[in-house]
Design goal:
By secondary structure, the protein is an alpha/beta fold. Helix content is about 35%, strand content about 30%. A hairpin with a 2-residue loop joins β11 and β12. α4 runs parallel beside α6 and α5 packs antiparallel against α6. It is globular and about 75 Å long.
């Protein structure tokens, strides 16, 4: 049975609106107007046990709202979801003891207490046996290299130190499903890498299912073979990360190292980068082989490569709204603005 099963999940928020000015403020006291915001609309997906899935989308796409519904913090407007066989928003104790939600922009540890005291509080909340708790705590502290931090108040930690402590605290009860919302936000490159390494190790050791949102493509590329992309609350893509470029990108990247640096290659394609004798072209995917053959025949370069564009560029095109130039959404799948 799948760990996460979602069918036509929808969440609509009813938000008040009014024009600026004192008159509009007074009128709103008598007759308040509202509009509907469809944060998530008809989302369906399935995640198997042990999968690490990237959950991608631009700001406002509905990622955090989806994770809040799956973790039980929000009720859906319609649709169904089952996580580990439970309906999340019923918030059954057995369910909450098997999942965790880590949000990079939210504090879960007690701000004025030492980290170890917050850990003890979590032990009491989840009813973890002392021997199991001590073993798991020591293991997490060692893996995340926070032994020198746990006696400090949370408010005295740097952002990177706090995030490692937050992750440790969220995993003390060894959850089977991890909902991670921007767990490396604001961290430096070294700290991001350490968090990624830890999460990969946790998944491998315990077979945990992970649903990860991140704006750092290095997180997704390192951890996720499968990605789910949503846009305006609707599913846009669900499949292997490796096939994302083929699905949305209409171009290939041709890199060529010239014998005669400085030659104008604009007639072969769009020149996107020049680094000494190395020139990078962007050409239509269907024309890549023909362009490469022309370059070899005309210029006899010392090296030539044909590749998919960097995944960051592909994601940027996927995230472009349908009304923006360069949007990657196919014409028969235009989404409402």
């Amino acid at each position: 049975m799948a760990d996460v099963e979602v069918d036509e999940l929808t969440r609509v928020f009813r938000v008040p609106v009014r024009e600026a000015g004192l008159g509009a403020a007074m009128r709103s006291l008598v007759r308040r107007e509202h509009r509907e915001v469809r944060a998530v609309e008809g989302l369906s997906l399935t995640i198997e046990p042990g999968e690490v899935v990237g959950f991608l989308g631009p700001n406002g796409a509905g990622k955090t709202t989806s994770l809040k519904m799956l973790s039980g913090l929000l009720h859906p407007t319609s649709g169904t979801a089952r996580v580990l066989g439970h309906e999340p928003w019923r918030r059954e104790r057995e369910y909450l003891a098997r999942i965790t939600l880590v949000m990079g922009n939210r504090n879960q540890l007690q701000w004025d207490l030492p980290v170890v005291d917050s850990f003890e509080m979590n032990r009491a909340i989840f009813g973890i046996a002392r021997t199991d708790f001590d073993r798991t705590r020591d293991e997490l502290v060692e893996l995340l290299e926070i032994g020198h931090l746990v006696t400090k108040p949370v408010r005295n930690l740097s952002l990177g130190e706090r995030m490692k402590a937050e992750i440790a605290g969220a995993l003390l009860h060894r959850p089977q499903v991890l909902f991670l919302d921007e767990p490396t936000i604001g961290l430096d490159v070294t700290m991001q890498k350490r968090i990624r390494t830890f999460l990969a190790g946790y998944n491998a050791r315990y077979g945990a299912t992970v649903m990860l949102t991140s704006h750092y493509m290095a997180d997704v590329s390192a951890l996720c073979r499968r990605v789910i992309v949503i846009h305006h609350g609707r599913l846009l893509y669900d499949g292997p990360l490796s096939e994302l470029a083929a699905r949305f990108e209409t171009a290939k990247t041709v890199g060529v190292t010239l014998v005669d640096p400085g030659a104008d290659l604009s007639r072969y394609g769009e020149v996107v980068a020049v680094d000494g004798a190395r020139v990078t072209l962007r050409v239509p995917r269907a024309d890549a082989s023909a362009v490469a053959a022309r370059l070899l025949a005309d210029l006899q370069p010392t090296d030539l490569t044909i590749e998919d564009p960097p995944i960051d560029d592909v994601i940027e095109r996927v995230f472009a709204t349908p009304d923006e130039p360069g949007s990657a959404v196919p014409s028969d799948e235009k989404l409402p603005g």
